[in-house]
Design brief:
single chain, Rossmann fold, 5 helices, 18% strand
Amino acid sequence: MSDIYQDLKVMVIDDSKTIRRTAETLLKKVGCDVITATDGFEALSKIADNNPDIIFVDIMMPRLDGYQTTALIKNNKVFQKTPVIMLSSKDGLFDRARGRIVGSEQYLTKPFTKEELLGAIKRHVLDERVG
């Protein structure tokens, strides 16, 4: 396993402790620096402090949902280029379309695999840096 993921800052925003822990474990194993948040409000302050390379955000969250959170990230000049990957337990066309409208780069259905997580990072962060 190469260390291409070493020191990448990855944010995972999900109100499910299980999802946060699963993603964190998978990502830390390949050397990512993982920042977690339980909802959009917590995430927004952490994004400003940590400046993540990529953000995974759950759609269904209390207070500020994934669409609202993504829209706020993408409307901020500093973070609008940061890739945002939406996570949802629903695999609906409407959700995917709505995710695109607010500016997300990709949509993963939960439960996601390690390959899907790393594939999204490779596609939106690493390939961007190379190409």
